[in-house]
Write a structure and sequence with these properties.
InterPro entries: ComF/GntX_DNA_util-trans, DZR_2, PRTase-like, PRTase_dom. The chain is α/β, with parallel strands linked by helices and 231 residues long. It contains 9 helices and 6 strands, in the order H-H-H-E-H-H-E-H-H-E-H-E-E-H-E. The strands form 2 sheets. A 4-stranded parallel sheet has the order 1-6-5-2.
Length: 231
């Protein structure tokens, strides 16, 4: 059956989108060598790339962060932007396997050190999720949770406000846009939480999630995203 499905729906590289001819790989060799994971010189708070001698990015130096610490795997460049577009809007759901494998490969040490009790993906507004067919953050989180044996409970946080798209908003507008957008369904007293999303840009979404989680008693809130964008 698997062989038949591979013929009918051949696996494609999540970066160049060409059919993978080599068995057992998730990304073609050429593309893998061109990707640049953020493995050094990053902000010790949010994970954004910084100069080698700098500990914190300008934003984390000047504002209080609701979350405790976070990391991103890849820079949100055009390659990753196109990859995520195919994943979210054009049916390339299998790319999630590569995304989760990359998170486990590059972030497992940090995640183990943070020792989260659960992984909570950033939720989508129900109508938007129905239109898209799935929540990309939940899909990635479920795959990572299975690989690392960390629970990924469903519906802990719901998005109850249909906010505007964050893409074209300023940092201040993004923060205002997400105010009171998330609602938590149970107490998180004393728990360590790992929030998971596909892209971190200004951090407004993660901040809003951390605010709700700590308001429900969470002791610590960390995050991991597949991509880390520039402000």
């Amino acid at each position: 059956m698997e062989k038949f499905l591979n013929i009918l729906y051949p696996r494609r590289c999540p970066v160049c989108h060409q059919i993978l001819t080599e068995k057992g790989i998730l990304v073609c060799r050429a593309c893998e060598n061109q990707l640049h994971p953020i493995i050094k010189d990053y902000c010790l708070k949010c994970g954004r790339p910084v100069a080698p001698e700098v500990e914190f990015c300008p934003e984390c130096r000047k504002v209080h962060r609701e979350f405790d610490r976070g990391r991103g795997v890849f820079l949100y460049n055009n390659r990753m932007r196109q990859s995520l577009l195919h994943y979210k809007y054009y049916g390339s759901r299998e790319y999630g396997e590569y995304y989760a494998a990359s998170i486990c490969r590059y972030m497992e040490r940090d995640i183990r050190a943070w020792n989260p009790d659960v992984i909570i993906p950033v939720p989508m507004y129900p109508r938007k999720q129905r239109e898209r067919g799935f929540n990309q953050a939940a899909d990635i989180a479920d795959r990572v949770g299975r690989n690392l044996k960390i629970p990924v409970p469903d519906q802990i946080i719901r998005k109850t406000k249909n906010t505007r798209s964050q893409k074209k908003l300023s940092a201040a507008e993004r923060k205002q846009n997400l105010r009171e957008a998330f609602q938590i369904t149970e107490r998180m007293d004393g728990l360590s939480i790992l929030v998971m999303d596909d892209v971190y840009t200004t951090g407004s979404t993660i901040e809003a999630m951390a605010h709700v989680l700590k308001g429900a008693g969470a002791e610590r809130v960390f995050f991991v995203t597949l991509c880390m964008g520039w402000i």
